[in-house]
Amino acid sequence: MIAMPTRANTLELIGNTPLVLLEGPSEAAGCEIYGKCEFANPGASVKDRAALGIVRDAEARGELKPGGTIVEGTAGNTGIGIALVANALGYKTIIVMPDNQSKEKMDTLRALGAELLLVPPTKFADPCHFVHTSRRLAEETEGAVWANQFDNIANRRVHIDTTAAELWAQLEGKIDGFTCAAGTGGTICGVGLGLKEFDETVQIALTDPHGAALYSYYAEGELKSEGSSVAEGIGQGRITANLEGAPIDTQFRISDEEGLVWVARLLREEGLCLGLSSGINVAGAIALGKRLQEQGRENPRVATILCDTGFRYLSSLYNADWLKSKNLPVFDWLEESA
Ligand code: PMP
């Protein structure tokens, strides 16, 4: 008999994602590199987990009442997760998003029935920043709660309880390293804390894109950024509540070009269509695999997060004109078909 579990409701479709051995990255690293298929969540990203965790927490604290509204500021994926969870549980959703994020995410949010407010991309210190705008909207809206994914640690808790526990079970307790980039930091800190509870020798590495300030923070104790990145959903300039006490052992800084190499190779050689944060994570995982071997670990196993589906970026990452406009290399097969 084939073991095919039935889920009792649609929310149970969130999490329990497959883990896949990535062939090209494993060959490049000289050790096993695994990708956690978070694009397989119903909202096609890792943020479905945080959305469900935050909503359940607000319910448990009595803040979110039947028929209430959930307000959030997001690069898009958390909004999509919240809208799905809200629809399943009978809540309304209001999403504030910077207007430079992918069109596909905006269209998806509208399709899901979320009320969408676009704001200009500004620095966190600006009162019009999407996070502050969403907080104000929540305060002004009757029966609304603010999800506050950056500083609400229900976000990282869900990764301790689910993502870390799943990785440990899927790799049968043989895992040497984990790395990913941070947006809110919920994934890296939650998975890091969770895995270290199982085995404190698991090495946790932060993979930071250019333009983010966490690499220098963990390397030198100072928040400093350098360069920029077009990757959506990652790149943090402050220590969010979700990042406080993150068990980071080492850190890597990965460029968009390096991430794109793996986006392209995973698509063409392994049939995985992913967003750029996944490519950056995979480049970081290869760096971690090599580092662990230099440190004397034999045949280390490293896991990372395949954060979201590439179908969310067809008009950007997978569009020759857009790539050229950002001075990024164009995938040769896109050039041919343009
Ligand atoms: N990749 C993508 C595409 C995302 O949307 C996010 C969430 N902002 C992340 C990575 C980072 O996840 P986290 O917020 O848990 O740090």
Automatic annotation (TrEMBL):
One of its GO terms (biological process) is cysteine biosynthetic process from serine. Pathway: Amino-acid biosynthesis. Residues 12-308 form the Tryptophan synthase beta chain-like PALP domain. InterPro entries: Cys_Synth/Cystath_Beta-Synth, P-phosphate_BS, TrpB-like_PALP, TrpB-like_PALP_sf. Its cofactor is pyridoxal 5'-phosphate. Keywords: Amino-acid biosynthesis, Pyridoxal phosphate, Transferase, Transit peptide. SUPFAM superfamilies: Tryptophan synthase beta subunit-like PLP-dependent enzymes. One of its GO terms (molecular function) is transferase activity, transferring alkyl or aryl (other than methyl) groups. This is Cysteine synthase A. It comes from Pontixanthobacter rizhaonensis. The lineage of its organism: Bacteria, Pseudomonadati, Pseudomonadota, Alphaproteobacteria, Sphingomonadales.
